[in-house]
Amino acid sequence: MFEFCKLKFRSIGTLCAAFLLALGSASAQEEGKRVALIIGNNNYSISPLRNAINDARLMDKALQAAGFKTILKEDATYPVMEEAAAKLAEQLGPDDTALFFYAGHGVQIENENFLVPVDFEAASTVVQAKFKCFRLAQLFEELKKRTKRSIIILDACRSNPVAERNALQSGLAQPQLAGMETFIAFSTSPGQVAADNPAGRDSWFTEALADLIEQPGLTLDDVFTRVKGRVTQATDSRQSPWTISNLTNTFYFHPPSNLQTANDPSQATKWMLEAQRREQRDDWDQAIRLVNQVVQRKPGGALESTAKAKLPYLLARKEAEQKYEDGKYKDAAVIYEKTLNLDPFAIDSAFEAVNNYLLSDQLPEAVHMLGVIRLRGTTESVAKATAMLKELGTVYPEAAQVIKTELPAPPPVQELFQGIQFGTPDWSAGIRTAQSSPVALTRWAKALLTAYPPPVDPAATATAEAKVDNEILHVEVNPTGETRDLSIRKIGNNADSPTGTLLIIGATGKVLVNGEWMADTLPAPVKLPPGKYTVRLVEKGMVVGGGQEVEVIAFQTKTVPLTRSK
Amino acid sequence: MKPALICCVVLLSSTVAARAADWTDRKEYDLVLTIRSEAAPEKRITLLDTWSKSYPQSAMSHARQELYLSTYESMGDRQKMFGVAKQMLAAQPNNPVGLYWLTVLAPQQTNANSEIWDAGDKAAHQLLASSKDYFAPEKRPANLTAGDWDKQKLSVEVLALRTEGWANWQRGNFAASADNFTECLKKDPGNAEVSSWLGIVSGLDNNKQPQALWHLARATGRELSTPLSDDQRRQVNGMLETVYVSYHGSLEGLEQLRKISSSSAFPPPEFTIDPATVVNARRAEAELSQSNPQLAAWLAMRRQLEDANGDKYFASDLQGKPLAQLSGTVLHAVPVRAPREITLSMTDANTPDVTLKLTVAATPAIHPGVKITFQGNGDSFAKSPFLLVVTADAAQIAK
Questions:
Q1: Which of A233, A260, A276 is nearest residue B39 as measured by Cβ atoms?
Q2: What CA–CA distance (Å, rounded) separates A190 from A108?
Q3: Which chain A residues are Cβ-neighbours of B124 within 8 angstroms?
Q4: Helix, strand, coil proportions of chain A in percent (round to 5)?
Q5: Inter-chain touch B23–A409, beta carbons under 8 Å
Q6: Quick one: B336 exposed, middle or buried, by C-beta within 10 A (0-12, 13-18, 19+)?
Q7: Which end of chain A, N or C, is surrounded by fewer C-beta atoms within 10 Å?
Q8: What's domain A265-421's architecture?
Q9: Distance of residue B150 Cα from the nearest chain A Cα, in angstroms
């Protein structure tokens, strides 16, 4: 009987050791490759976008800087999207992190998410539309099979005439988590459409995201919490990015530098959480290291007292395990029993003590430990202890006596959570929280900017006014600003952006674009970012001709005849 | 079997049984033990939700709310924490845990509205009123020294004042807010965040730009006891430069301001920064003194005469004393043929500024429109309409 027990417990011990070894190897390979597929689709025939490619390029840069091998596709057709997804999947292994970023139109079809390729054409039925769009679930399925961790970021919730013209639903549906270890972020909440960024070249969402990705020491959750904050503020709550996650490990785009870690008041909390995870994996060395860091940081309050109480417990667990590995079962059992003084609810440790007492043929001590388990254990562990006592009772009658003892009522909740003093604030935790989570000042930065405009250079103003005043007849080209992405901050200066051309003919005079002289005489070719513009002939401050709205399409030239009105 | 061991177990059992009547049933205890051992905060929240749903009337509902708080804290979810603190206060209006967390978290809420401002303000007020009781010497935890206990009290009071100031600030009550933040800084001068907030509210008060610039500049310092994070520093630095350039006209002198503001939480009483208008005027004067020294001298003189202390200035510096060489355009001269009194416009050839009284008539005659240079002594002056009377010899006039 005891041989059986020994064998049984030994085999558990061996299994544990094997498990620990496996954990160790997994831990060593924790940081595998980082591979990202980035798609930005602007050039739709139905409703072109302007920022999606900029967004994709911005993310490409930010992700490369964060150590991702990137696959960037601009204006991807359906076959290109499929091919790129396959290329991403091919490069991934079980320890790798996959990231998929998409900027472009997205639609819901029958409550499923589809990404719209640039070669999408109006479909007559919903089924046809489904087969012309890229099914997101298809990518999820591939990533689920292959990676350690998947991060999906979709800036595809824009105002969407593609959807409207095809009787589809704009915005994306709330996805089901694709598999284990997946993080999904939307630029706005499911079913909503994203707000515009009239002053920017990139969407609010991607601008904030790329900026925050580059900041070291922010976890994935930190990044998106801050993205949410920035976008919500910038859009006056019209757009609220949304995330869903079942990641169980912390992911950093850029790990914290030592200096940042040293200054982050919330770091001790993060260490303690990680220590708890390590403890659950029996990774005693790492758990001890992390708890030691917490103790040295002196965070105060419950965190510090919990860490101080935890440290000797972890050291004892490590020592006990070592004794067990060395075959010194009696020593191991005594130390395991000691751990119960340090954490009376460490039921797994109590079972280890039982195991080791049995292995060293110390039945009375084993029975005592089983009695202790019955005091504080869960129903399941009490049942397990009772079963063991019954079994032991066949060869050791005293064990049966313990079973006869009435099961005690469980101890009060305060004993379970010794670090927390219920009813008394954890003052240190509040101070730490206030220091670690800065208050958003964006609104006030704007208020100050409004109250304190930059000083006007009188000389420059005078020159500019003189130029316009002196011009008797000129052509003005201005963006209409009525649709998303249209506002232009610097005309003609974005060498990377695609442009179209307006060939203005007919009248005489210079051409003034957005307040800047662009051509001295007509006919004049004027290069502009894609978008809608009004072109008008102005003389002495009065509109004397034109006034028509024209659309500039990338890489195309449009002729605009201008005549003086009668 | 060692009988002592069995006795020990039985004894322990009866002690525990006597203390523990709180659990609804054994399953509730099982659930809470599972919560205790769950390391992943998200899963812990799910388990806490299960506890709430399964045992809504649990005798440990207060403890449960505190477990929610600590779990959301480890997740960094300030909004959820705020919600829990509100629930705690709804159930028990003087709950110190609820009061404390509401105070801490109100400023951290995104999209805070008047309800949040008021809730934070009220909680902070109650916290401040009770701080003496909360931090009574007999309540000091054994692991803290009396000094540490006092420091903790001070930090909590600073947090409460900070929230009161924040609430007043959000309401647009900048003066009250500045008072709260000033109190904060008196207790905790190295608090960069509060310095930055005081800088913002002072900046929005049109009479306090130099003070605002002091506080913003100080907030960007790295040497304070509680400095800003890099993110915050970047943002506050942006505000500092915006206000500084707008107010002063350029970034000139900003580095010096950063340096001197690092020495004290508050500017000295006489502290001031020249506004751009003064800087521009001074620059223009400097340029003018190079290109047209007589006009520059006249403008400097006239500015001082028109000042509130103009009479004193005239009496001490000009009356009966030789003036710098000046030049002006003759508007009229009497008598015409041999004038003894000449009226001049010093700037625009239209407005009379100076009357020259000549001790000897000037010959030949000086006609209107002619530009003359002269020297003389101050005789008298009137502020409105402005006129300076100068006595001079005809020999001191040159065309």
A1: A276
A2: 10
A3: none
A4: 45, 20, 35
A5: yes
A6: exposed
A7: C
A8: Alpha Horseshoe (1.25)
A9: 12
* Rounded distance between C-alpha atoms, residue B239 and residue B241, angstroms: 5
Cα B232 off chain centre by:
15
In sequence order, what DSSP letters do the residues of B86-97 get, joined into one string?
HHHHHH-TT-HH
Peptide bond preceding B364 in cis form (omega within 30 of 0): yes
Per-residue pLDDT of chain B (399 residues; tens, 9 = 90+): 333 433 333 334 433 333 445 899 999 999 999 999 898 899 999 999 999 999 999 999 999 999 999 999 988 899 999 999 999 999 999 999 999 999 999 999 987 889 999 999 999 999 999 999 999 999 998 888 999 999 999 999 999 999 999 999 999 999 999 999 999 999 999 999 999 999 999 998 878 999 999 999 999 998 899 999 877 888 899 999 999 999 998 898 999 999 999 999 999 999 999 998 888 777 777 777 787 888 888 888 888 898 889 999 999 999 999 998 898 999 999 988 888 999 999 877 778 899 999 988 887 888 888 889 998 999 999 988 899 999 988 787 887
Instruction: Tell me if A138 sits within 8 A of A119, measured CB to CB.
Output: no
| Closest by Cβ to A435, choosing from B1, B60, B226 | B226
Q: Which residues contact A465 (CB under 8 A, 6 or more apart)?
A: none
- Residues of B in Cβ contact (< 8 Å) with A449: 242
As a whole number of angstroms, the distance between CA B399 and CA B396 comes to 10
**Cβ atoms of B375 and B325 closer than 8 Å:** yes
Q: How many CB pairs under 8 A join A and B?
A: 214
Residue ranges per structural domain of chain A: 30-245, 265-421, 458-561
Query: Which residue type is seen at B152?
Result: Q
8 Å CB contact of A433 and B73: yes
CA atoms of B268 and B270, how far apart (whole Å): 6
The span from the CA of A433 to the CA of B315, in Å, is 64
Q: How many CB atoms lie within 10 A of CB A468?
A: 15
First to last CA, chain A: 113
Chain B residues 192-251 with CB within 8 Å of chain A: 193, 196, 200, 203-204, 226-232, 235-236, 238-239, 242-243, 245-247, 249
Q: Which helix (H) or strand (E) holds B186?
A: helix B174-187
**Distance, in angstroms, between B367 CA and closest chain A CA?**
36
φ and ψ of A321, to 5 deg: -65, -40
Judging by DSSP bridges, how do beta strands A557-561 and A500-505 pair with one another?
Answer: parallel
Arch. (CATH architecture) of A30-245 = 3-Layer(aba) Sandwich (3.40)
- Tell me the β-bridge partners of A115: A106, A134
> Residue B193 and residue B107: Cα distance in Å, rounded?
12
d(CA B339, CA B368) in angstroms, rounded, equals 11
Q: Which pairs from B50-55 meet CB under 8 Å and 24+ separation? A: B54/B27, B54/B28, B55/B24, B55/B28, B55/B31
Does A523 sit behind a cis peptide bond, omega within 30 degrees of 0 on the bond before it? Answer: yes
Residue A279, H or E segment? helix A267-280
The answer to whether the beta carbons of residues B167 and B125 sit under 8 Å apart is: no
Would you state the structure tokens that stand for residue B45, as one six-digit string?
Answer: 């929240």
Question: What is the value of pTM for the model shown?
Answer: 0.58
For residue A251, give every residue at least 6 positions away whose Cβ sits within 8 Å of its Cβ, in sequence order, or none.
Answer: A97, A149, A151, A183, A219, A220
A431 reaches B (C-beta below 8 A): yes
Q: Chain A, 444-503: which have a CB under 8 Å from a chain B CB?
A: 444-445, 447-449, 451-455
Distance from the first to the final alpha carbon of chain B: 129
Which run of H or of E encompasses A245? strand A242-245
Can you tell me the distance from the alpha carbon of B363 to that of B340, in angstroms, rounded to the nearest whole number?
10
